[in-house]
Specification:
Chain lengths: 165, 566
């Protein structure tokens, strides 16, 4: 089963390697991982998408907590949360398909962020499923390059992490 | 006043109460060594290999409960420490390892004697640091010691670049450690403790299963209380060995692959397994699906990751064993009548276990013509003082020691259980003897393992450490040979150690004493003579070559399916 986990870590040298090493060393799987500093610049927030049964997830959770640099771990499975991913797609825009690409972009409320006579680069945000969908529609037209950030998530409601503790 | 990085390091060690460090100098730690003579409260022991320095610090830590400290230079010096660090990590031993590093501007440039130690040791340390700024040094050393000895202990590495050792700044040792991501749980949840007491009182056939955590938490008095209060039998892992007296009526000895028949039968038939600081290692459980099949499991451990890692657990309790066990005992004291009732029930259970013990006691076939290795261990167990510290290497001699030596006091058995490191015992004995100059310290070894760190004879002689070394010489890598005999149709591929080593001459070459015998009737005499001889002594016993460690659970089998005789 797929799980999305947020990890608040000390924004220190080598912390990414500790988390990545933990996953690879213990044979846990990482589908995506995104990381950046938080409002408090001494902390970074990682969002990790992983797969595993309950036993594995319990271990992932405990092992992450065991790292000295880990401040907090939240598994969002079963929680109410919003999830967004950003992708940029460089897509073929020959004469015959230029209009079609723009129509698809419009349907997905995506923006054109770079344009050449032969290509459009689209920026699209949304839940990973939405990005999967636009990629499938653009694929027959010819995708030259695709980059995805992996999802980030926040719990719904007015409470933030600090208060939730 | 300003101090240099190397001075700050040594000041910190002094403030942490470090009296002994084990190490080996080199270019990237030369500044530390330059300042070392100015700190006479710190005794430095020069080993002959960095791996041995770390094992010695480990032996010091295991025998005292204090944090062991080792120093090595950058590059090869540092990489030589890795086996020692991994050994300590697997057995949760509190240690701080300081390695020199090339100057910060050169890091990442493949400089001379550069190795990425923080990267290399990340999976085998509890935590590690690269000190990039001298202003962080005091805080990092403080944190390193704190992390090493608290919670589930473990080794912490500090990689210290040469330019940071030379730089200077104002020295202030922080009095508090602030780590928002590290807050070990010590007191068990009271509700879980109450539940544990209830489960114990409802049991008919309880077994206490004790691991290395019991030694680390020094909970042997509480453990004894719990066991005696209800007459509950106790089995230990290799790591838990000396935390429950081996000669106690309730002791079942070791369980698992080379455990006793009755310990394994007790675990297979128990209805309540109380796991105390143990982690259900594969050498203990055998086939996991059939391990303790009828039991409810209470698991007490300070490390939440140990719980439910390998087996289902009915009642987890996270906390320090000493605190949790004494809370459970207190709770049980409130239940007078039920305690008496359980005591009556366990009498029946103990009888059942006694039946297994009678059917298949831990034994071997004695011989008049050749020395049986088990016989040597029995003799040592009889002749050594109760507080003698025993170290072992890894292999058959280690298992025979676990089976036939009766450990009576805590922290008297030092052995590499998790990683299984050959070459551990001699340097560990060195470290233990540094900590306890007056006690008997004996390394029980095989001829294979001994040769993995035999250079430490020089260190023993230099520091006049009277470690006694027992070599059970069968001219084989015996444990592998045993597997080849039992599971590979006696294909003794690369296990005979063809060249007979003259261990007496080897001892003498280092300035130590060597005694050798192949006669059964001389075993006692050799041990007596060795114990009377000052300084380090090798006792070589040429033992029967193809003796096997039995009983044995073949890998992957259930622990009640034991091979009892060859």
């Amino acid at each position: 089963m797929k799980h999305t986990i947020s990890v608040l870590v000390e924004n220190e040298f080598g912390v990414l390697a500790r988390v990545a090493g933990l996953f690879s060393g213990r044979g846990f799987n990482i589908e995506s991982l995104s990381v950046a500093p938080t409002l408090d610049s001494s902390l970074s927030r990682m969002t990790i998408v992983t797969r595993g049964d309950d036993r594995i997830l319990e271990q992932i959770n405990k092992q992450l907590n065991k790292l000295i640099d880990t401040v907090k771990v939240i598994d969002f499975t079963g929680e109410d949360y919003v999830e967004r991913e950003l992708a940029m797609v460089k897509v073929n825009a020959d004469e015959s398909v230029r209009a079609e690409v723009l129509r698809i972009a419009d349907i997905f409320r995506s923006k054109v962020v770079d344009v050449t006579p032969r290509s459009y680069t689209l920026e699209v945000t949304g839940a990973p499923a939405k990005i999967d969908a636009i990629v499938e529609l653009l694929r027959p037209i010819g995708i030259k390059e695709l980059v995805r950030t992996g999802p980030v998530v926040l719990g719904r409601g007015s409470k933030g992490w600090k208060q939730a503790e | 006043m300003k101090k240099t990085g190397s001075q700050i390091l040594l000041e910190c060690l002094q403030l942490e109460g470090v009296d002994t460090v084990f190490g080996y100098p080199g270019g990237a730690v030369i500044n530390i060594y330059d300042d070392l003579p100015d700190y006479p409260s710190i005794t430095h022991v020069l080993t002959r290999h960095e791996q041995a320095a770390v094992h010695a610090a480990d032996g010091y830590a295991r025998s005292t409960g204090k944090v062991g400290v080792a120093i090595a230079t950058s590059g090869p010096g540092a990489t030589n420490t890795v086996t020692g660090i991994a050994t300590a990590y697997m057995d949760s031993i509190p240690m701080v390892i300081i390695t020199g590093q090339v100057p910060t501007p050169l890091i990442g440039n493949d400089a001379f004697q550069e190795a990425d130690m923080v990267g290399i040791t990340r999976p085998v340390t509890k935590h590690n640091y690269l000190v990039k700024d001298i202003r962080d040094l005091a805080r990092i050393v403080k944190q390193a010691f704190y992390i090493a000895r608290t919670g589930r202990p473990g080794p912490v590495l500090i990689d210290l670049p040469k330019d940071v050792q030379v730089a200077s700044c104002k020295f202030e040792y922080p009095d508090k450690v602030e780590l928002r991501g590290y807050k070990p749980t010590y007191t068990g949840n009271p509700r879980q403790i109450a539940k544990a007491a209830k489960m114990i009182l409802g049991a008919r056939k309880p077994v206490i299963y004790v691991g290395g955590g019991a030694t680390l938490s020094d909970c042997n008095p509480e453990l004894l209380d719990l066991a005696e209060m209800l007459n509950m039998p106790v089995t230990t892992t290799l790591m838990g060995m000396s935390s429950f007296p081996g000669n106690h009526d309730l002791s079942l000895g070791m369980l698992g692959m080379h455990g006793t028949y009755y310990a394994n039968m007790a675990v297979t038939n128990t209805d309540l397994l109380i796991a105390v600081g143990a982690r259900f290692d594969d050498r203990v459980t055998g086939k996991i699906d059939t391990f303790a099949p009828h039991a409810k499991i209470i698991h007490v451990d300070i490390d939440p990751t140990s719980i439910k890692k390998n087996v289902r657990v009915d009642l987890p309790i996270v906390g320090d064993l000493k605190q949790v066990l004494s809370a459970v005992v207190r709770k049980l004291h409130e239940e007078g009548d039920s305690v008496a009732a359980l005591k009556e029930r366990t009498a029946e259970w103990l009888e059942e276990i006694a039946g297994w013990k009678e059917k298949h006691p831990l034994t071997y076939t004695p011989s008049d013509s050749e020395i049986k290795p088990q016989f040597v261990i029995e003799k040592l167990s009889e002749m050594l003082n109760e507080d003698a510290i025993i170290t072992t290497e890894v292999g058959q001699h280690q298992m025979w020691t676990a089976q036939f030596f009766r450990f009576k006091q805590p922290r008297t058995f030092l052995s590499s259980g998790g990683l299984g490191t050959m070459g551990y015992g001699l340097p560990a004995a060195l470290g233990a003897q540094m900590a306890f100059p007056e006690r008997q310290v004996v390394d029980i070894s095989g001829d294979g393992s001994f040769q993995m760190n035999s250079q430490e004879l020089a260190t023993l002689v230099q520091y006049k450490l009277p470690v006694k070394i027992v070599i059970l010489n069968n001219n084989y890598l015996g444990m592998v040979r045993q597997w080849q005999q039992l599971f590979f149709e006696r294909n003794y591929s690369q296990t005979p150690l063809e060249v007979p080593i003259d261990f007496v001459k080897l001892a003498e070459a280092y300035g130590a004493t060597g005694i050798s015998t192949d006669r059964v009737d001389q075993v006692e005499e050799v041990i007596r003579k060795a114990l009377e001889t000052p300084g380090p002594v090798i006792m070589e016993f040429k033992v029967s070559r193809e003796e096997n460690v039995l009983p044995m659970v073949p890998a992957g089998r259930s622990i009640h399916e034991m091979v009892l005789a060859s």
